Amino acid sequence: MVGAPVTPNPLPAQLLASIDELLQELDTLVSPSSSLPHDVIRNASGSITAQLRDHSRQLTNIVREAKQHSSEDRLMKDQAHLGLQNLLYERRHLEREIEKCRQFNSIYQEIPLHTMDEFMSIAPEEAKTEEVLKDEHQLLLRRLNLELSERTRLDIQKKQMIAEKERLLSENKKAEGGLDSLVGDLDSLSKIAVELQGKMAALELP
């Protein structure tokens, strides 16, 4: 675990103390003032040398393990630091996104809606229950739905009125065309009547 206290290993200190004692014994054995037989000195020094080599191997292993643990601890600390940096980056990113959302002007805020009095007056009962009125989000959805249905209804009425207007204009044009034809016929009849009157007047002369 990163940050856990490291318990000191007493073995290296014990080995170093033992090495010091063995070196002192070896110095005593090979000292010119030593009165021990040569064979005894050789056997004793060989035993001490073997112990020193064993202690050396143990110290080498301890140093190697310590370096490995140190490397692992450093790697874990680096990973923890990197993870912390990633979390801080994510936090800053989320804070920026939250701020953007707070400053975001929804298109729904720009749609002119019926007033609450109008909504309460014309909305169906299921759209204005107590539960809906307590929930701002649900209330906005109901008001938008009402606005959509009302605008759809008014758009249908508008199209119907336009169609009726076009029908009346068409009929009016037909009536005007018939009237023009009638006026033309009357003009023709008037001319014929004038000609007929002229001929009749000529026949009445002596």
UniProtKB/TrEMBL annotation:
GO cellular component, one term: THO complex part of transcription export complex
InterPro entries hit by this protein: THO_Thoc5
GO BP terms: mRNA export from nucleus
Localization of this protein: Nucleus
GO molecular function, one term: mRNA binding
Name of one Pfam family that matches: FmiP_Thoc5
Keyword terms of this UniProt record: Nucleus
Domain of life from the UniProt record: Eukaryota
Main localization, broad class: nucleus
Family to which this protein belongs: Belongs to the THOC5 family.
Keyword Nucleus in annotation: yes
Protein's recorded name: THO complex subunit 5
